[in-house]
Amino acid sequence: MSMMDANRGAVAAVAKWWWLFIITGIAWFAVAVIILQYNAQSAATVGLIVGFMLVFTGIEQLLVAAAVEGWKWVWILFGLFFIAGGVWAIVNPIGTSVALAQSLGIIFGLIGVFWIIEAFASKSANALWWLPLISGLLMVGIGVWVAGQGFLEKAITLLMFAGFWAIMHGVGDLVRAFELKRLGKLVSSAA
Question: Which of the four, 1, 48, 65, 100, has the lowest number of CB atoms within 10 Å?
Fold first, then answer.
């Protein structure tokens, strides 16, 4: 069996699950509807999403620790740290949303700085390097603006950001579903 046949087989095996992305896409739209209601359930939903993301990140860190040769203790430490933070966020989702809202300006600023660094780091390999640079500068500006706002404005900004992020995630999952279905048809017709 050639490498090409093995790759086709792997693509075909994954492509048959294309419909799962439709389910997750619809689920993300439901999450967006809940978040964009701007009530206590919105804040709780954001806190729960953060909690589950932290738990899954912690599990990933522990899996990396099992695979790497050196510095296993660092991966394990961070894995346990993320899992503990995730459990706290799941147990206290409103508190998590409040903490996120209070630090939203700093979070946006750090994301902007990361995008700026990424733009310059990829300048030689990416002809469109200036797009993440502009995005980073805008995000730093938004971070400064949000940091100067009151708590209520920060909380609304957090909910808007999380709601629109969920919508974009849902759209991305639906696009992935149909692209995966199309790819599966291409692989099966080429066989």
Answer: 1
Q: Which of 43, 37, 81 is nearest to 62 (CA)?
A: 81
Predicted confidence (pLDDT) at residue 137 exceeds the cutoff of 80: yes
Rounded Cα distance, 30 and 167, in Å: 9
Locate the domains of the chain by residue range: 3-190
Inter-residue contact 59 to 110 (CB < 8 Å): no
Across the chain, mean pLDDT equals 91
Could you give the CA distance from residue 34 to residue 31 in angstroms, rounded to a whole number?
A: 5
For 20-38, letters b (16+ CB in 10 Å) and e give: ebeebbeebbebbeebbee
Amino acid at 79: G
Structure-token pair, residue 157: 């900004």
Q: Are 94 and 46 in contact (CB under 8 A)?
A: no
Predicted TM-score (pTM) of the model is 0.75
